[in-house]
Design brief:
Elements (H helix, E strand, L loop, with lengths): L2 H9 L20 H11 L2 E11 L5 E12 L3 E8 L3 E5 L3 E6 L4 E6 H4 L4 H6 L8 E9 L2 E8 L6 E9 L4 E8 L4 E11 L17 E4 L1
Parallel strand pairs: 6-12
Antiparallel strand pairs: 1-2, 1-11, 2-3, 3-4, 4-5, 5-6, 7-8, 8-9, 9-10, 10-11
């Protein structure tokens, strides 16, 4: 895959995550949607590590990556890729900065245009999640409670989001499929609820000499 195109796709991996439960029998359960609502109600800020794998439409793994994320409700987040190369996606509720460290290039988009009905909006948005998503319980598999969030906006860049919670209500997995048939599977670790985050943490100032593109 062309390196520039590959990095553009990584910029949108908060939109494109893997569906784990495809074709797998599950036991009926009704707690995952409640877990999401409780998570959003009780959690103002979050810090976590993540790892993810991107799959093509034939379910072949084509990229592994990892990094860190923080968010503060409503509408502020930092999604930092550390491997296989450095890239930062930062939103302050008004703008989103997509910064490629190696290319020394940042793309700036308006928040509502860049995020819309995305996983970032689902986790870091306001508490009125059912205005933008249809929420469905999927069931229990291997001690993970699964739910699905289907965007009500038909122009969304993806088909659905799936979230997996432990039996104690901790968010552990996130998954979705994009409209091109590519999917990605994301695992959270060391997730901390309500950490103290510095002032100005969700603002981004491009380094001197950075190529800045506004859209």
């Amino acid at each position: 895959m062309n390196r520039t195109l590959n990095r553009t796709r990584v910029s949108f991996l908060i939109f494109f995550l893997f569906v784990l439960l495809q074709g797998t029998p599950i036991v009926t359960w009704a707690a995952a949607v409640d877990n999401l609502k409780t998570f959003i109600h009780e959690t103002q800020t979050v810090r976590a590590n993540f790892s993810q794998t991107l799959y093509d439409k034939n379910a072949r793994a084509i990229q592994n990556s990892s990094g860190t994320l923080e968010f503060e409700r409503p509408d502020k987040f930092r999604w930092i890729y550390q491997a296989p190369y450095e890239q930062s996606i930062i939103g302050d509720g008004k703008q989103v900065w997509f910064y490629d460290h190696d290319l020394n290039q940042v793309t700036i988009r308006q928040f509502n245009v860049a995020i819309g009905s995305s996983p970032a909006a689902l986790l870091a948005g306001n508490t009125a999640i059912e205005e933008n998503f249809e929420l469905l319980n999927l069931g229990l598999q291997d001690d993970i409670e699964w739910m699905e969030a289907i965007p009500k906006n038909k122009d969304s860049a993806f088909e659905f989001i799936q979230l997996g919670f432990s039996l104690t209500g901790n968010l552990q997995f996130m998954a979705l499929r994009d409209n091109f048939g590519q999917t990605t599977y994301l695992t959270f670790s060391d997730l901390i609820k309500n950490p103290s985050l510095p002032d100005g943490f969700f603002k981004f100032v491009p380094p001197e000499g950075t190529d800045v593109i506004s859209e």
